[in-house]
From TrEMBL:
Name recorded for this polypeptide: ABC uptake transporter, ATP-binding protein
Recorded GO MF terms: ATP binding; ATP hydrolysis activity
CDD domains with a match to the protein in the record: ABC_NrtD_SsuB_transporters
Cross-referenced PROSITE patterns: ABC_TRANSPORTER_1 (PS00211), ABC_TRANSPORTER_2 (PS50893)
ABC transporter domain segment(s): 4-239
Keywords tagged on the record: ATP-binding, Nucleotide-binding, Transport
One Pfam assignment: ABC_tran
């Protein structure tokens, strides 16, 4: 049985454009199965509804039609079994690094000594123990994202949902984190759904790459990446998988004008 399933997911909403309103279909008829411990990357053109779909998986938004199933049970709201890591790290600058990682555990009522022990465990995994007492504004962008990932892992979710967490980083930092995230995934065996606009990033990280159509977004193709880990972006043996994703994306890349229209509608 799949760990996480999307069954015929569709989402519509009303968008205001000047003095007019219109009904926007963000995603339509999405069927996707994610196995326990699988790393799945979602790619597609800007405005195709990938983030909308991820928010539905997280329980942050409700579908207009269809349902999400986690471990055989419908998902109707947010919960600690699914945790989101955003492109913006959403850390609290007035808290120290370790307090940021402990925050979710504190909200869950975990006693101080246990949450501190768990926080330090994941900071060690992210190679951040010596920065535990630093404030987040003292960290680089890559280090902040490590803290955000440590905070998500500390809650011990069933599923980790990641919305372009490396998009704002420089290429060198991103390449390092691509390797580190694979090593962390291998240790934790978490089920991960990861949105990216970077096709090479998708084949480096994913067991499976799911290509979305342009809006209304739906699944165009699923590509299995059957290659050893950890994978490096410069590995030429990944090129056949890269070409498969590129070929699937053909015809789905939208013009700059359409991209601006999509952004004004609020679909991502």
């Amino acid at each position: 049985m799949a760990k996480l399933e999307a069954r015929n997911i569709g989402k519509q909403f009303m968008a205001v454009q000047g003095s007019n309103t219109k009904l926007i279909t963000a995603v339509k008829g999405i069927n996707l199965s994610i196995e326990d411990g699988q790393f799945v990357c979602l790619v597609g053109p800007s405005g195709c509804g990938k983030t909308t779909f991820l928010n539905i998986l997280a329980g942050l938004d409700k579908p207009t039609e269809g349902e999400v199933i986690l471990d055989g049970h419908p998902v109707n709201e947010t919960g600690p079994d699914r945790v989101m890591v955003f492109q913006e790290n959403a850390l609290f600058p007035w808290l120290k690094v370790v307090d940021n990682v402990e925050f979710g555990l504190k909200m869950a009522g975990i006693e101080k000594s246990k949450r501190h022990e768990r926080a330090m465990h994941y900071l060690e995994m992210m190679q951040l123990t010596k920065f535990a007492d630093a404030y987040t504004y003292q960290l680089s962008g890559g280090m902040k994202q490590r803290v955000a990932i440590a905070r998500a892992l500390a809650i011990d979710p069933e599923v980790l949902l990641m919305d372009e967490p490396f998009a704002a980083l420089d290429s060198q930092t991103r390449d390092l984190l691509l390797v580190e995230l694979q090593l962390i995934w291998a240790r934790t065996k978490k089920t991960i759904a990861f949105i990216t606009h970077n096709i090479l990033e998708s084949v480096v990280l994913g067991d499976k790459v799911v290509v979305f159509t342009k809006r209304p977004g739906t699944v165009k193709k699923e590509i299995t990446v059957n290659y050893r880990r950890p994978r490096l972006p410069e590995d030429e043996n990944l090129q056949p998988y890269y070409r498969q994703v590129i070929d699937a994306m053909k015809g789905e890349i939208i013009s700059d004008k359409d991209d601006n229209d999509n952004n004004s509608d609020g679909v991502t």
